[in-house]
Amino acid sequence: MAVKYLLCGLLSLCFSCLIAPVVVVICRRLKAGQTILHYVDKHASKQGTPTMGGAIFLLTLLFSGCFLSAENALIGWFVIAITFAYAILGFLDDFIKVRSHQNEGLKPYQKIVGQVGVAVVVAVFLWMSGRTEVNLFSLHFDISWGIIPLSILVMVATTNSVNLTDGLDGLAGGVSLIYVLFFGFVLAITGQAENQNLAILCFGLCGGLLGFLTQNCNPAKIFMGDTGSLALGGFIGFVSLISGFEFLIPLMGVMFVLSSVSDIIQVLHFKRTRKRVFLMAPLHHHFEQKGVHENRIVVVYIVITMAVCLAVFCGEIAVGI
Question: For 94-147, how does the pLDDT look when each residue is reduced to its tens digit (9 = 90+)?
Fold first, then answer.
């Protein structure tokens, strides 16, 4: 299987590198430009940069479906379907922003309703298929019906966390790449046949993200938009749930957690005191306001994610998953 994983990743990378420039040109011709919020003054020069670039790695994920093994292929395609369901929700948000030439798309409650709706489908699927066991290193628990509220919480939290991390060129894409890569390794070493297709999709998505980053690194030629960030969050959440490794998300995805927590702290503290804890939230914008160049922030986020993921991966090997 190792050869198949490598082949899938390499061919997906080639595929994404081929379509990435095409997607950029199409988005430019469609005038699908991003409107920058007026108070994010450091990003004023990015006004009009094409968005919806998530299509690059989404199409690549679809391409990687060609490498799915016949056994449990249905599960793999269901993962792709859920990922695209979140992508459609993100696309609607992006489309409204582009059409109205402002940075407000779907109403917050509309996005939450859509996210919860897809999450409910995921929860019911896991419950009906008997996938109610969760794992953390050598610990295994069957939580029975508890998988339903847990699944909804994981899916909504993950999609929003990845979405909040998407604020600097290459940030969400780079952090997601490292997370998905190491999670693919975790799935690959479990030796379970049902996880092999999930690992294939992970490595295929890694190829897609690399191709996307060739166009998204600073200065970005295209943004992933909510089309990409919600899809990434949906993929990460669902693959983690269906494999029973959902508790690895806050560990390996610590930078996603940091984005969410910093944003929640900022909002709650401001509502209570009318004062801000950070110069701007999420946290990466705070560092940017402090004068740290966005490239440095992106590199630090990626390096921290890599270090944590490596530690978790070594821990999984040590306890024998």
Answer: 999 998 887 788 998 999 999 999 999 999 999 999 899 888 777 788 899 999
Gap between the Cα atoms of 131 and 138, Å rounded: 18
Minimal CA–CA distance to 93: which of 104, 105, 108, 107?
Answer: 105
Q: pTM for the complete prediction?
A: 0.95
Q: Which long-range contacts (CB under 8 A, 24 or more apart) does 165-168 make?
A: 165/229, 165/255, 165/256, 165/259, 165/282, 165/284, 166/223, 166/224, 166/228, 166/229, 167/282, 167/284, 167/285, 168/218, 168/284, 168/288, 168/294, 168/297, 168/298
Rounded Cα gap, residues 17 and 140, in angstroms: 40
Mean pLDDT computed over 230-246:
96
Helix (H), strand (E) counts: the chain? 12, 2
Chain-centroid distance of CA 172 in Å reads 7
Kind and range of the H or E run holding 141: strand 139-142
State the average pLDDT for the chain: 93
Residue 285 carries which side chain, given as an amino acid letter? H
Q: How many whole angstroms separate alpha carbon 3 and alpha carbon 5? A: 5
Dihedrals phi, psi of 309, to nearest 5 degrees: -60, -40
Distance between CA atoms of 29 and 161, rounded to whole angstroms? 31
Alpha-carbon dihedral angle through residues 146, 152, 158, 163, given to the nearest 10 degrees: -170
pLDDT band at residue 48 using 50, 70 and 90 as cut-offs: confident
